[in-house]
Amino acid sequence: MATEVMQSAEPRTNYLNAGHTVKSWLLTLDHKRIGLLYLFSISAFFFIGGIYATLIRLELVTPQGDLMTAETYNKVFTMHGVIMIFFFLIPSIPAVLGNFLLPLMLGAKDVAFPRLNLLSWYVFIVGGGMFMLTMINGGIDTGWTFYPPYSSIYSNTQVTLAGVSIFITGFSSILTGLNFMVTIHTMRAPGMTWFRLPLFVWAHYATSLIQILGTPVVAITVLALGFERTLQIGIFDPKLGGDPVLFQHMFWFYSHPAVYIMIIPSMGVVSELIANMTRKRVFGYHFVAFSSLAIAVFGFLVWGHHMFTSSQSMYAGLVFSLITYAVAIPSAIKTFNWTATIYKGSVSFDTPMIYALAFLGLFTIGGMTGLFLAAMGLDVHLHDTYFVVAHFHYVMVGGAIIGYLGGLHFWWPKITGKMYPEIWGRISAAIVFLGFNLTFFPQFVVGYLGMPRRYHSYVPEFQVLHILSSAGASILALGFLMPVFYFAWSIKYGKPAGANPWGAVGLEWQTPSPPPTENFTYQPVITTEAYEFEHVEEIKNAGKAEALQTA
Amino acid sequence: MAEHATHVPGLAHHFVSMEQQKEAGTLGMWIFLLTELMFFGGLFLAYTIYRTTYPEGFLYGSHLLNVPLGGTNTVVLIVSSLTMAMAVYYSQLGEKKKLIFFLLVTLALCFVFLIIKYFEYMSKIHDHLFPAFGTYHPSTTGPHGIPLELQQPVRVFLWIYFLMTGLHALHMIVGAGILITLIYMAQKGRFTKQYNSPVEISGLYWHFVDIVWIFLFPLLYLTGFHVSGAGH
Ligand SMILES: [Cu+2]
């Protein structure tokens, strides 16, 4: 990897040293600082969610429910699911990397609405704080899906408070989506046409579309659930004339597309990683760009595949099953195009590329097993088993989180101006990959054999598989903890990164690291398409790179 | 950052031009309205499902609502949309006095709507038709009587009525806040021929809230109005 380390002699003002007071962070309107505020907040939630995951895996080491009661176990897996989905995965890439990079990639000074951007973080913190309150008050036990009538009348845990906190957090997601969409439409630098946009930006456009169209529906759904509990009206309660299946329709109308809120940004990251780490133009740029939109649009038409077994008409199920299959097409287009990009590229095996390759394999397994579940006949057997649990963890962890980690490593030098220790990055990536597969692959098997999800005890013949899974989880936990330490270490002791340590294309690499508050000291004008590596070489040869870095 | 501030009055530092800022603001409001549409959309879905499930309950429920009051409110809102449009028009001409006048009229109409809505709600509560907190005890006889077997379905209609019109009224209250802010800003002379997009963007919001009511009125008040002999 080419690493030109060029440091200007005099200390430069950048977004990090532009102010050191707590106030300068908490009242910042700078999209880069807001991205970091999100980074710290969602990392905290990730580790809280991880503690719950640890408790789940500890309980499942033995077939008897001996570590905790069934009720406690219900709470533990619910808290794990809600925290990981609503407070970590949904904000993860958009709110951290998207916030930081989108204006840089577009050649803009900031997002379209900086105040709204800060507001979205505060809304997130209020929602997250209320969920912490829920946790302190005993948590909830409904499962992250909140199905009534259990959640509406039977559960006597903090469902209303949790519902309100998710309602509030939803607005943070809506505001981010709205902000990004307007930013992409109106804040592009001169010459930045739609088909010169990096694929990361296309992915965020598709994600924003889902956030805008889907999140309000889940907001009104949990609001209705809250009203049902507090006012005793029969919205979903059959005893009072309501229809519990209506909740499932409304919930999944958001929550299936929400899966794409988590995975599409990760796909955007992987497009950037693969292009820059193989030094090749992404094969089939237009197809990769439009497949993000296609996934977003198809994603709204498949929610019924969660209800094959809940009194939905068989014919409706048939249509939902078919459309679910259709989502595989744009996903496969991406996977094949990435593979074709790597072919004959000059591949580097730095940490970001290891994550990108891991994503390719794990997402393929996660996506393909999704097709098993989309088949109605097979789903009757696999519904609510560990097969489903393994499937969505392959997509959510193997896809979304792996992509997020790859992106974090790739842009860490841009964010902090320092290189992380490459060797530790590679080791932890390998540990994450091994630990992940050891954790979740046995769950496919145990699910296929008939182990239902959400149970704290099981028949003794499943124990070997569960022990494998729990052992894998401890390895995975180590892999997730390591970056915390070496990232923190690198801020103080890391090698200075220079403007473009990877020799990457993209506007964000044509400004110093860390970038100045206004992002660019010159007005960027775009004259080439994204991923023009020949062009980058030309600039370097002409010695212009230096000019850019000191500009 | 601060030293770049406003060469042109009203232009935020991160925008290149007034046109870009206006485009961003307008698009932002349209997208926001799209989210609002999806938000109300969930309730319209619930309405559709339950109206199909309980057609008779919805007929009875609809007859409990006060059509003259609802109709008056419809007219009030349509007129307020006109006055809002006038306010936008005069803000573009930079005519401060007329702008403030029409904003004030719009605000007044907003309050008229809310007051009428208040009396409608109170009469429902008075007739024990509020579907929550166990206060729902409709009589089986009299002008607001509901046959026993229909009391449950009518209750479903009533929570839909209260939830949808309640959320709509909440949007009206937010709208009143926006109008007051606009009047304050206009008084301070913040709007000029060049800079008036806040008025225009708020206008979009106002029209949206009106349109929601245009759908709510026939769906809730006029359901089965054409069915002779239904209800009482
Ligand atoms: Cu789904």
Write up what this structure looks like.
The complex is a heterodimer of chains A (551) and B (232). Chain A has 551 residues and is mainly α. Chain A has a single domain (32-550), classed as Cytochrome C Oxidase, Chain A (Up-down Bundle), CATH 1.20.210.10. Chain A contains 18 helices and no strands. The two termini of chain A are 24 Å apart. The model of chain A is unreliable at 1-10 (pLDDT under 50). Chain B has a single domain, classed as Cytochrome c oxidase, subunit III, four-helix bundle (Four Helix Bundle (Hemerythrin (Met), subunit A), Up-down Bundle). Chain B has six helices and no strands. Chain B has helices at residues 18-53, 55-64, 67-93, 96-126, 151-187, 197-221. Chain B starts with 17 loop residues before the first helix and ends in an 11-residue tail after the last helix. Mean pLDDT of chain B is 90; it is low at 1-6 and 228-232. At the A-B interface, helix 7, helix 8 and helix 9 of A face helix 1 and helix 5 of B. Copper (II) ion binds at residues 256, 305-306 of chain A.
Question: Could you give a quick summary of the protein structure above?
Answer:
The complex is a heterodimer of chains A (551) and B (232). With 551 residues, chain A is mostly helical.
The outline of chain B comes out as elongated
Largest interface (CB within 8 Å) is between: A-B, 40 and 37 residues
**Any idea what the CATH architecture of chain A is?**
Up-down Bundle
Number of E-type strands of chain A: 0
Which word captures the global form of chain A? Answer: globular
Write the H/E string of chain B, N to C. Answer: HHHHHH
Annotated CATH topology of chain B: Four Helix Bundle (Hemerythrin (Met), subunit A)
* Largest beta-sheet characterization of chain A: none
* Radius of gyration of chain B, in angstroms, nearest whole number: 22 Å
Count of distinct strands of chain B: 0
List segments of chain A where confidence is low: pLDDT < 50 over at least 5 consecutive residues.
1-10
What is the CATH superfamily classification of chain B?
Answer: Cytochrome c oxidase, subunit III, four-helix bundle
Mean pLDDT of chain A: 93
Low-confidence stretches of chain B: 1-6, 228-232
- Report mean pLDDT of chain B, rounded to a whole number: 90
What is the count of helical runs of chain B?
Answer: 6
In the CATH scheme, the class of chain A would be Mainly Alpha
- The secondary structure category of chain A is mainly alpha
Radius of gyration of CA atoms of chain A, rounded to a whole number:
23 Å
